[in-house]
Amino acid sequence: MKDGFRQSMAWLHRWAGLLVGWVLFAVFLTGTAAYLRPEISYWMRPELALSRPGPADAEVAVQAMQAMAPNSPSWFINLPDERDTTLRVFWREPGPRGRGFREAVLDPATGHPVEARETLGGEFFYRFHFQLHYVGVLWGRWIVSICAMFMLVAIVSGIITHRRIFADFFTFRPGKGQRSWLDGHNICAVLALPYHLMITYTGLVLFMLMVMPWGVDRAYPGGRAAFNAEAFGSAPPRARAGSAASLTPVLPLVQEAQRRWGGGRVGRVVVANPGDANATIQLVRADSERISYNPQSLTFDGPTGALLQDSGEGLPAAEVRGWMYGLHIGRFAGPLLRALFILSGLAGTAMVATGCVLWATKTRQQAARQGRVGFGTRLVEHLNVAAIAGLPLAMAAFFWANRLLPTGMPQRADWEVHVFFAAWVLCLLHPLFRRGRQAWVEQFAAGALAFALLPLLNALVTRRHLLTTLSEGDHVRAAFDLGLLGCALLLGALAWKVARHRPTPASIRVPAAIPRPGRSAEPAR
Amino acid sequence: MIGLGAALAYAGFVAMCLAMERHHEQVFRTRAIPPRRRRLLAALGWLLLAASALATVAASGWGLGLVLWAGVLTATAIPLSILLTYAPRVALVLAAAPLPAGLALLLSVS
After folding, report:
1. Is the Cβ pair B74, A337 closer than 8 Å?
2. Residue A80 included in any domain
3. Are both A102 and A184 inside the same structural domain?
4. Which chain B residues are Cβ-neighbours of A195 within 8 angstroms?
5. Is residue A288 within 8 angstroms of chain B, CB to CB?
6. Which residues contact A162 (CB under 8 A, 6 or more apart)?
7. pLDDT digit string (tens) for B61-97?
8. How near does any CA of chain A get to the CA of B110, in Å?
9. pLDDT at position A366
10. Are A149 and A96 in the same domain?
């Protein structure tokens, strides 16, 4: 700590990274999977047929909600698009405090709940990556936010520590033990640095009102509604009138919105106080059409359909937040850009993983020099296996559960998640019985096998397997099955690589301190 | 157009690598680079990267184009650093990619 700025930054980088590394690995990997949320959900509901979004979807949804939740204070309806062909609806439960939410997935053709197995689908990975599971939504968000702050600290301190950032820009030297891990860590970190900085910072911005509420609370003591109205141009909520009135048809409003947005699509319908004389219908523009996630919206009077408010782009500060929000969730991204985001997300995952492994490698070498390996080192090594090799295996188990659990089972969607965590807990226990490299190899190999057999299982228990999806032009499901095989190949390659690895003399001769790489590593000419 | 942007970015990174002794050695088996050629390669590298930014911006506008460009830089630099280690000659040959990419673009326009 007293050796100067760069050394103290190296210390900070090492410990900030290690403390939250395992959570960050899970957040990065499931967050990367969340870029494919609609595709995962579609694959996990093999009963669904291909469908195209139509103009009547909003009307169908509103009628379905009137049947399902007539007394709810508010409905949130996500309309289908090319990627997600279901109607996803949420509504607030009626009651004095009305804080609870219910949700359903509807078929846009009929308005009935989709006739498919009960599953969270890609929604699970999406939610897990910012609020975890089992710990409660708020706790999970706080944990992930704090980890994200550590991540930001680790990134900035890592840049300062990395003194050969340009000289080593493209450098990867395999087969040299700790040196190779450091090279790999640097490549994943530096070459995707814009993405890492963006995703970590914007991730924190998404929760800014939760993490740092004081400014807003001070300036708007009356509550968030006034702030929301001013910052985002959303219409102030109207109190219930208490007298009943039926809702106007939605279709003309949707057409009006499309006209005003120059052909832009409606992505979301929010109805407040349905059935009341003071009901409002808010149409929100689809978030796939602009980078900024400050959605344009139109608010109409519920019974008459008169336009109450037209919110365009927000104020500059709100628009900056909207851009950051939009960049993080990447819903504006077409297939190519989404592929680039996924690649960068995987680079981030690899960055965290190599960082954790690097920590363990280095500490073990120091320990070997002193002649004894401490509990801390072994704990880190153990958790590395469970987090890095275990999580992909648990994700495969989640997909297996989706195909194997009986469709009529009560709380089926929950049980898929329980299977995911059960598999992960097994991965946490497994290294207790298998020493060192053996645990890595077995978990990677098991993951590879689980992914490789999924398309086969799919062919055994559903009709939507590669033989039919390819010929029917169901590209999403076909590509998903092929992607599973790709995951299997990747994990298999990792297992093979770890199994084949023999510690070389070079890995023992590597210089001790990380902060001064490159001094002795260059072979003399 | 985005394909051209990626090809240009890759070629730019290769030019930059060839201006660095370690990577010059990986490709040509000698660390010695004449100073003039080194400066030329480095300048060419920056020029090609700038051109690749122009290509993505021309394809998708400023906002989306620059986001795409950042992604393209990552997606070309990571394979390059792996190729340099395992197949340096292939890494060099692929730097000619802007030619077919540009040609394909011209043909599709005309």
Report:
1. no
2. yes
3. no
4. 70-71, 74
5. no
6. A168, A186, A189, A190
7. 898 999 999 999 999 999 999 999 999 999 999 998 8
8. 24
9. 87
10. no
- A397 contact partners, CB below 8 Å, separation of at least 6: A419, A420, A422, A423, A424, A450
- The confidence score (pLDDT) of residue A174 equals 87
Residues of chain A with pLDDT under 70: 1-3, 96-99, 233-235, 312-314, 503-525
End of a domain among A278, A313, A348? A313
Q: How many domains does chain A have?
A: 2
Q: What's the pLDDT score for residue B109?
A: 74
Q: Is residue A477 part of a domain?
A: yes
Among candidate residues A263, A280, A313, the one where a domain is terminated: A313
Examine residue A70 and state whether it is found in any structural domain, yes or no.
yes
Q: Mutating which of A340, A343, A522 best tests the B interface, going by the most B Cβ atoms within 10 A?
A: A340
B80–A170 CB contact, under 8 Å: yes
A309 and A175 co-located in one domain: no
| In a shared domain, residues A347 and A392 | yes
A498 is a domain residue: yes
Range of the domain at A468: 5-46+124-191+333-509
Which chain B residues contact residue A340 at CB under 8 A? 68, 71-72, 74-75
User: pLDDT digits over A348-385, tens only?
Assistant: 999 999 999 999 999 988 888 888 888 889 999 999 99
Are A464 and A397 within one domain?
A: yes
Question: What pLDDT shows up at residue A442?
Answer: 96
Reported for A7-16, long-range contacts at CB under 8 A and 24+ positions apart, including other chains, are A7/A515, A9/A157, A9/A160, A9/A161, A10/A157, A10/A161, A10/A514, A10/A515, A12/A153, A12/A154, A12/A157, A13/A154, A13/A157, A13/A158, A13/A161, A14/A359, A14/A514, A16/A150, A16/A153, A16/A154, A16/A157
B-chain CB neighbours of A198 within 8 Å are 70
Do A283 and A430 belong to one domain? no
- Which residue of chain B comes nearest to A333, CA vs CA? B64
Please give the pLDDT value at position A218: 87
Write out pLDDT tens, residues A478-514.
999 999 999 999 999 999 999 987 765 444 444 444 4
Considering the domain architecture, whether residues A130 and A111 belong to the same structural domain is answered as: no
The residue behind tokens 């628009």 is A319
B81–A170 CB contact, under 8 Å: yes
Q: Tell me, what's the pLDDT at B24?
A: 92
pLDDT of residue A422: 98
Q: ipTM for the complex?
A: 0.93
Tell whether B50 is within 8 A of chain A (Cβ).
no
Percent of chain A residues topping a pLDDT of 70 = 93
Distance from CA of B100 to the nearest CA of A (A): 20
Indicate if A79 and A142 belong to the same structural domain.
no
CA A173 – CA A165 distance, rounded (Å):
15
